[in-house]
Amino acid sequence: MSAFVNVILAVQMLAALGMIGLILIQHGKGADMGAAFGSGSAGSLFGASGSANFLSRTTAVLAAVFFVTTLALAYLGNTRTASTGSVLESPAAAVPAPVTAPAADASAPVAPAPAASGAAQIPTK
């Protein structure tokens, strides 16, 4: 299962990098607008609308692949957990009390072990 997730993750990364590259090299819709107002020559004011060239179709395909791989990773990441219930519902693990060193004098009182509850750790005024 882990190898399958790694393959999907690699496909998602390649699709993301491909989309970034294709979007950066595409010519914007309003890029020829300045040429229509005297800074160069252009075929028309807004270019050919309605025709999708190779770059925009490839970007759309890569976006669809990215979307599908994202959904697949979300589904696989949600089903991989083996525990049932919440972490907050499980009982806390017992923390062992610290070991105190034995006193050198047998008649000297030994310091009591700290209380297990959190109330004993709150300082008083």
TrEMBL record:
Cellular component, GO annotation: plasma membrane
Membrane topology: Multi-pass membrane protein
Sections of the chain in a coiled coil: none
Cellular localization per UniProt: Cell membrane
Membrane-crossing residue ranges in chain numbering: 7-25, 54-76
Single GO biological process annotation from the record: protein transport by the Sec complex
Keywords per UniProt: Cell membrane, Membrane, Protein transport, Translocation, Transmembrane, Transmembrane helix, Transport
Reported function: Involved in protein export. Participates in an early event of protein translocation.
PANTHER family, per database record: PROTEIN-EXPORT MEMBRANE PROTEIN SECG (PTHR34182)
Identification of the protein by name: Protein-export membrane protein SecG
Source species: Paenacidovorax monticola
Source species taxonomy: Bacteria, Pseudomonadati, Pseudomonadota, Betaproteobacteria, Burkholderiales
Gene: secG
